[in-house]
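Today's session is about reading a structure prediction critically. Students often jump straight to the picture, but the first step is always the sequence itself: look for stretches that repeat, for charged clusters, for runs of hydrophobic residues. Only then move on to the predicted structure, which in these notes is written as discrete structure tokens rather than atom positions. Here is the chain we will use throughout the hour.
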Amino acid sequence: MPAQLNIVQPPDGAGDPVTSPEHLAIQASPDIVEFAERVHLAFLEALRSKLTVALGSETRASFIRTEQSFMARYLTDAEPGIHNILLSLEPLAGCALLRFSSELLFKVLDILLASPAAAVGPRGESVTEIEFHVLRGFFQIFSDALKETWRSTPPVALTLMPEHSEESPAGYGDAHSLAMKSMIEIDGAGGAFYVVVPAYLARLSAKVSGIGADETMPAEGASPTLTRIADALGSAKVDIDAVLSNLTIRIGDLLELAPGQILLAEKTADSIFECLVNKSTRFEGELVSAGGRYGFQLSRVGVGDKAAGSPADK
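Below is the predicted structure for this chain, in token form.
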């Protein structure tokens, strides 16, 4: 029977919103989330086609929602019946992962091993090492579909990471990630799965490809120069300073300061302030409170470099 792709589109104002964890230092913009979801829908279409050929069974897939969190949430959460498959992002530093339920994996095993449903006894929540070996071809289909649909990104491997790899995925736990949850159904049974990618991969892909909201992804990748730059800088870190206000004070008054005194800034509480990246002004925004912590909501991006000689830099 032909496979079917069922993309669920909730009505306006309904459905699951993008989850915004309380302690993320930065959130992906709606445009980046939308871009990642368009790529994910293309991935589901490619996956559906490949599973049809490989399994010869009716397959349905539906996109549920996108979550934002630290990669560590998916690398370390030991939920019963959940299995992670790590994907390499070489040559970039980082990893992506596939996250499956045991229910889905057991269904695929029954198809691959031609096991009648009645012949299968009670099962636990764990998949054995031998069963994982049998499922490797199934995981490879996901890897191939991801490589096809993320083709406009800086070229990354998205290959299955060896079980005993020297690369430690725990070191990537602080990466801000986009986790796209979907449901797949094969022969009337299935379960949920996640595709989790670092948010910087979506940002680099959208930036390099220059894809608009109503455009499709180009068949060709980015220019070699932009790709090399993105490869080199994708996992680099920079310092960001939020400058609320400048204040000038006489040296004599400075020496007489004592605990309990209040220094009044020139700006009001709702004023726009600057964000410095490596001591150069790059953004402007407003102070906000989120999850009991201070944050800044950007109002202008790419303000431009300013000389680092103001009192704020001292």
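Discussion point for the tutorial: The radius of gyration is 24 Å.
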